[in-house]
Amino acid sequence: VITAVALAGLPEVRPGDDLAALIAAAAPDGFAPGDVLCVAHKVVSKAEGRVVELASVTPGPRALELAERWGKDARKLQVVLDEAAEVLRADGGRLICRTRHGFVCANAGVDASNAGDDRLVLLPLDPDASARALRARLGVAVVITDSFGRPWRIGQAEIAIGCAGLAPLDDWRGRADSHGRELHATLVAIADQAASAADLVRGKDSAEPAVIVRGLAPFVLGEDGPGAAALVRERGQDLFT
Amino acid sequence: VITAVALAGLPEVRPGDDLAALIAAAAPDGFAPGDVLCVAHKVVSKAEGRVVELASVTPGPRALELAERWGKDARKLQVVLDEAAEVLRADGGRLICRTRHGFVCANAGVDASNAGDDRLVLLPLDPDASARALRARLGVAVVITDSFGRPWRIGQAEIAIGCAGLAPLDDWRGRADSHGRELHATLVAIADQAASAADLVRGKDSAEPAVIVRGLAPFVLGEDGPGAAALVRERGQDLFT
User: Residue A181: is its pLDDT beyond 90?
Assistant: First the structure.
């Protein structure tokens, strides 16, 4: 049995806030062995100060050109360009980027902070390190998540961008014959699926960024493990594109 | 709270078997309002006779050429080519295909039936219709799932290839301002995330193809709804590729 339970909402998180303490306060019963804490990245980014004031941004020529073409705010586009290691596609008002972490997503993971706000929230610099830091403080496996669009499919699904204390992958390659049964998959993205399960229970307005997923004890590690970096396919190794 | 519980394993499913009856027998307590039954497609495909005996396949020139190049069984490649509406990439022993349903996946969704078996299992011809048929018989929302690889990421995640009685998408576009809170996503792939949640609890050797996901009542419909077809992005409309 797998269970996902949202923690009570956190207060608005600000740069410098002690996120681990805020989460601990929202989980008065603490965590059980085998629990996995899934945290929407935005509160992590905010606590880590990964926030940009639009007023502080001076757009360069490419941002100005795209802004002109798309009728968008050039400063926002500049922030996206700054976060992108590579722009894979610039079309229809959207920049599909590869981030420095190797994630491929819309707008390099840059989000609006609040409706009508003048701040943008970036991805954590090193989400696996963010997960390790939360795990060290809270004593629970941690997945840091974000909503990504997917090629060929409509709608976003939550995936793991950071991970500590949870095996990100369950590798069944070569184990089929030992059971004599068919495998329905051979390399299962456990951390991504945990992120998606957590998202189903989360308030859609991000008032509940922290969710406990129970029942994944077989994948919980006694150490930080390889992190969500293990879920990133190396450039040039992609089967699909 | 979201809960995923695997039903007891089904017996080996054969073409012509009454899958709804097998599932009902594995769920002696029946289903509650708001339950979502997630079923790995392979048992659906088998019950529907979507099974090919390799001995019956005569490979054509393209399958023979790829088989020669990759050292693979030309008959298996022929079955994949037959299932593909379009081959997007043929590389490294794998065919990335668009199926007639519009799904983009490895080998057009064709699976080995069992280790060492001489049969291949295809995707259902119309997985939404398969889901509707199960819903009509069992009186519960149904998602039919498969494990798909993803561009740029390692590992497979379970997604919805068929759906009835569950809203496949939760659309929050335009609703941000009414709450005054930031949205973490605007168009959430509920059915795909339910498929992933179900997969976390499923035996990895496909002995437990049927999983009940509880807690999704807000997305359960009084009718079949648009199905997983609503999750397929139209060709030429893709933001990523």
Answer: no
Looking at the partner chain, which of B4, B154, B168 has a beta carbon nearest the beta carbon of A169?
B154
The model's pTM:
0.95
How many angstroms away from the CA of B152 is the closest CA of chain A? 5
- Backbone CA torsion sign across B165, B190, A151, A36: negative
Burial class (CB in 10 A: 0-12, 13-18, 19+), B82: middle
- ipTM score of complex: 0.95
Plot region of A49 (φ>0 → left; ψ -120 to 50 → alpha; else → beta): left
Whether B138 has a pLDDT exceeding 90, the answer reads yes
Sort A92 into a burial class: Cβ within 10 Å, 0-12 / 13-18 / 19+. exposed
Q: Is the predicted pLDDT of residue A135 greater than 70, yes or no?
A: yes
Q: Does A182 touch chain B (CB under 8 A)?
A: yes
Q: Are strands A51-53 and A84-91 parallel, antiparallel or unpaired?
A: unpaired
The pairing of beta strand B2-6 with beta strand B210-214: antiparallel
Q: How many CA atoms lie within 13 A of A58 on its CB side?
A: 0
Is residue A145 within 8 angstroms of chain B, CB to CB? Answer: no
Structure confidence at residue B173 (pLDDT): 78
What is the chain B residue with the closest CA to A175? B205
Q: What is the mean pLDDT of chain B?
A: 92
Question: d(Cα A219, Cα B136) in Å, to the nearest integer?
Answer: 37
- Note the pLDDT of residue A159: 98
**Structure-token match 């609040």, residue found:** A114
